[in-house]
Amino acid sequence: MIGLSNIIMELASYEMFRSVESIDFNAISKDHIGDIQAIFNGQNIKVQVFSNDDADSVAKKIIDHAKF
Asked: Would the CA dihedral through 4, 10, 16, 20 be positive or negative?
């Protein structure tokens, strides 16, 4: 399992998101490790992060939630 802070650091290194931060969350299951908010394509996007996620899967979630 990769920690939330490690995922945030790796996402920031991609330089494709204007901002990446952890936000307050209410756990929805034992596998839910937190929520990340990122600014991508001028949009504030919030995604849930689970214990099986890595930076690539979280980046894909962010991009998939963006409206083009």
From this structure: positive
The kind and range of the H/E element at 12 are helix 4-13
- Region of residue 15 (left: phi > 0; alpha: psi -120 to 50; beta: else): left
Q: What does the pLDDT read at residue 1?
A: 55
Unique residue bearing structure tokens 């849930």 = 48
As a whole number of angstroms, the distance between CA 20 and CA 23 comes to 10
Torsion of CA 53, 66, 42, 20, to 10 degrees: -10
pLDDT greater at residue 47 or residue 2: 47
Is residue 58 very low, low, confident or very high in pLDDT (cuts 50, 70, 90)? very high
- Residue 46 three-state SS: strand
- State pTM to two decimals: 0.85
